[in-house]
Amino acid sequence: MSDTEFTRADVCAAAIADAFSEDGEIFASPMGLLPTLGVRLAKLTSNPDLVISDGESVFLGGTPPLGGKDVVEGWIPFRRVFDVVAYGKRHVMMGATQVDRHGNQNISAIGDFARPKRQLLGSRGAPGNTVNNRTSYWVPKHSTRVFVEQVDIVSGVGPSRAAAAGPGAARFNDIHRIVSNLAVFDLGGAGDTVRLVSVHPGVSVAEVVEATGFALDAPADVPTTREPTTEELLLIREMIDPKGLRFKEVPDA
Asked: Which helix (H) or strand (E) holds 183?
């Protein structure tokens, strides 16, 4: 592969990095492999002020490779994480087993709440994240099973539900981006609904619409997600993910 050729996983990493590019000096909390890759790419390019951790208990010095040895710079036990959440200087990117057109996320269970068909993670920190600090979602397999008209159980709160709950829930609710293996979205659609921002290179709008289980707000002309730069490709391949772990989530078709 040449220095300028790229894969879908590279495009997704750059799109995730863009989601954090204008955050300034905040605590970035990526959950999962591609979000971690994207955040470290942002720190090395567009936003060097990002503060990153191992996702458990320590701040990291530098930007270690995925699967490599971390350089510890400081200690941040969970009680300190909650202090940062309440302060709001944080941007978390979580997964989403389901996400609906109003930006509500489900990672708790599938089916009726009283008798679910499948138990998942539980709501974890999703409610607190979505009412206290900027939140984005990463979906590695875009399908109508994930992008649904209405989530079975609300874990992360979208803007309409937050507004209905009152100022305490709505004041800091900020569902910033949803990045999937097909496209990028925000909540800029009519009535704060999911809107198509861009489709990845090689993906058509029709493919995204077909793989989405609700009426998708889309402009007349949908741009293409930008291609990663040569610098970004070198950083991804040689520094952040030399083992190619990203292809486990987004295979190189």
From this structure: strand 183-189
- E strand or H helix at 95: strand 90-95
Amino acid sitting at position 116: P
Please tell me the pTM assigned to this model.
0.94
Q: Across the chain, which distance is largest between two alpha carbons, in Å?
A: 53
Q: Work out the number of other CB atoms within 10 angstroms of the CB of residue 242.
A: 13
Alpha carbons 96 and 98: distance in angstroms, whole number? 5
- Mean pLDDT (the chain) is 93
Query: Distance between CA atoms of 27 and 24, rounded to whole angstroms?
Result: 9
Cα separation values, 21 from 29, 38, 138, 144, 175, Å? 14, 10, 16, 29, 15
DSSP letters, 194-239, are EEEEEE-TT--HHHHHHT-SSPPB--SSPPBPPPPPHHHHHIIIII
CB 67 within 8 A of CB 33: no
Residues 20-34: tens digit of each pLDDT = 999 999 999 899 999
For residue 235, give both structure tokens. 């950083």
CA distance 59 to 53: 4
Kindly give the pairing relationship between strand 147-148 and strand 98-100: parallel
Using CA atoms, how far residue 249 sits from 28, 104, 141, 241, in Å, is 21, 23, 8, 13
Q: Measure CA of the first residue to CA of the last residue in the chain; give whole Å.
A: 14
Residue 171 has pLDDT above 80, yes or no: yes
Could you give the CA distance from residue 190 to residue 33 in angstroms, rounded to a whole number?
A: 32
Q: What is residue 124's DSSP assignment?
A: T
Tokens of 246: 């990203």
